[in-house]
Design a protein that fits this description.
Length: 165
């Protein structure tokens, strides 16, 4: 099911955001391979190996968690987003965009789609953590309405952010 379509900021690619499907293991793994070491430093919810791609796609039918993926009209994965603890009023959110697609608006579109899904499912909000030195992600999160709500400890490397719906 297509959730959203848009053109990248540079106008070169048409992007489709849709639900991740059980038959998307190879596509998800291909996306994982497009993350640099720096991207993995900033975004590390799980290992980016084939086993995890398979675990994620095989658990979709029986999970309260949601996964969406952004793909070009040619079928290349560009990014994905998910929420965990989907049975809670305020699930945790994660988002990753393939390095070669940074700065093209895909992250913002993925965030806006997840916010729309959360509203449709009557969630009270979304929460996430972000590394203090991940300024690109902080910019996107603030742009779509997330607010800083604290940090684990004074010397923590991460901020907590939340969006109230």
């Amino acid at each position: 099911m297509v959730l959203r379509t848009f053109k990248t900021k540079d106008g070169k690619k048409d992007i489709i955001i849709r639900y991740l499907r059980e038959d998307d293991t190879d596509l998800l793994y291909e996306l994982f391979q497009g993350y640099s070491e720096r991207s993995i430093y900033f975004f590390h919810p799980h290992k980016f190996d084939y086993g995890n791609a398979e675990r994620i796609t095989s658990s979709l039918a029986n999970s309260p968690d949601y996964y969406i993926i952004a793909v070009t009209t040619e079928g290349e994965a560009t990014g994905y987003a998910f929420w965990v603890e989907g049975d809670k009023p305020i699930p945790g959110l994660g988002i990753g965009v393939k390095d070669k697609y940074h700065e093209l608006g895909i992250g913002t579109q993925l965030m806006e789609t997840m916010i729309e899904l959360a509203r449709q499912r009557k969630k009270k909000g979304l929460r996430l953590t972000v590394l203090k030195d991940n300024f690109r992600a902080q910019y996107v999160y603030k742009k779509v309405g997330f607010k800083f709500t604290g940090e684990e400890t004074e010397d923590s490397a991460e901020f907590w952010m939340e969006l109230t719906l």
